[in-house]
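QUALITY CONTROL LOG
STEP: pairwise intake check
CHECKER ROLE: data steward
CRITERIA: each record must contain a sequence immediately followed by its structure tokens, with no blank fields

ENTRY 1 OF 2
RESULT FIELD BELOW
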Amino acid sequence: MESPSLPDWTTAPVPSDAWRVPSRHGRSNRVIAFGLVITLALAGIAGVAALAFGGSGDGYPDEWDPAVLDLVEYVERERGLAFNHPVTVRFLDESAFRDEISFSEDDIDPAARATAVGDAAVLRALGIADGDIDLIEVFGELNAGLTLAYYDSGRDEIVVRGTDLTAPARVSVVHELVHALQDQHFDLDRFQALDSDESDAARALVEGDATMVEDAYYATLSPTDQRAVDAAHSFDSTDVPEAVPEILTYFASSPYVFGASLVAALDAHGGRERVDDAFGDPPVSEEHLIDPLRYVLDDEPVRRVDVRLREGEEVRDRDSLGAFSLFMILAERIDAHDALAAVDGWGGGEYAAYDDATGTGCIAAVVAGDDQSEEDELLRALQEWADAGVPGAASASQGPRGISIRACDPGTDVELVTGRSSEAFALLAVRSDFFRWYVDGGEDIEVAWCVASRIIDLSTLEQLNDPDG
């Protein structure tokens, strides 16, 4: 078979100021940190939504804007589905676009503010953020800074940042047209009822599908246009606003970075029909983001575990604790390869956020392994993680229902973030790139995953980024 070109490492995430990611087109109504969901839209912030879900979609135009008709036809042809009806495409200048996606303090009710304060405490408890974090400001900065376009299912429209149909804008419109097409055929709104682990996995399917079509369209552009798209759709860590903990950008980008490999595996295993079927029976776990074969080859269901708090502890928030989130938490303090080896045995997880008797934000979680030996390895990694943090602030122990994790906020004056999760995210992204590279070249998906995983197991990130190979 003819070998495809090597992955483009300029768009693969790498640490620190060299870190670059593929384009982010969709909006997010959540800043996700391992399953902690900052549900700002639901808690009182008006007008922000993931892909702008919700509402009735009967206000669509009679015909497509002629300026985007060729893109509509391309998306239908490449995706193998036809639109049921046109959608509006609006192009806004920078000021109008920011007004569209921004919110003010007047939009935030006290419940949303209290939720954000409590969730910031839990991020510090886990060691993945430090200092006095204003998560509402963080959410606003992420939304305003990273969004290039979005699809609003409630209004049947695509909103694009910029008034000219440049090459970057055309690529953004292609991506959002796929979301409109998905919505018309598969009803994306229904994914909003899922818990965070399920929702993150489903979003990877949604974004991966759109990214596959986007990448195919990108390949048709001239080298000059491709360079323009690369410049517009990439950023490094210096572009991330200072208010935003860097690790949150990794959580926000994970559906794009890993979703395309998931969809590539589905396509290789059964063609576009298999991808379509996945929208009816979507992936249910973050594990399916970082190991797509677990989903494509019908892995065993995720084990459900329950967190039980002690007397006097009242749950403030409860949700699933997924494999990718746990990996990122572990890798902030322990070796990334060790963290990955441990999380590969993840079998299920749940967390409960609460305030202790002193009013300190805390988290209790239970994590299970696929079997006892996998759980033992997870326990060793979690105990190493707890020991590497602030003394006495976190613990991990074996319990009757799995590994019990406890952690409380050590305060805003303690330096907690090591930055090691940057390398960890890069390792996962490079593995995903290698896997997709082999699959796109016609390799069997199991062989492709085995080889990609082995490369990562035997390589440091420095070696993977060595320009001399």
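ENTRY 2 OF 2
RESULT FIELD BELOW
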Amino acid sequence: MSTVTDAIDEKTYCYIHPTAETRLRCNKCGNYICARCAVRTPVGYRCPNCVRQQQDTFFTALPTDYAIAAVVAFALSVPICYVLTRLGLFFAILIGIPAGGFISEMVHRALRRRRGRYTYLVVGGAVIVGALAASFEVLRLILTGQPEAISLLLIPAVVGVLCAVTAGARFRFGK
């Protein structure tokens, strides 16, 4: 009888947070997990490692795909952001989101529909860099000490953020 009470009284700790006492186990690997680590799935609670392994089956990108995504996103964002900044703030906001969708579609096709875990970061970053490259003359004015040029940076910033968020969201949340 004492072995049953010893087993119940035995303290167990999360394998990720060794100071967190828990009785919850991952239903796949059996490791103890605390409430902070537990990921609720349709079949029960799982640890972050098991969830990550399960999600890895959806990511099929090759290491070179990140470079391809960066080059294509940058090459498309420079002319798009250059044109949109010349149209004014209203048209930049109106056309910025579809332009980001176009960039993401072209990257998606260039990657032959493969997705990587961090493709959204690469695409979003390349679009931001492309927007900065498209607004080079405004940046040059700011660096030469013309403070009125700072107000000219609003439109390129709006265009860059709209395009980057839209293009990155396609890869972050899937299609």
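INTAKE CHECK: passed for both entries
DESCRIPTIVE NOTE, ENTRY 2: Residues 38 and 47 are 5 Å apart (CA to CA).
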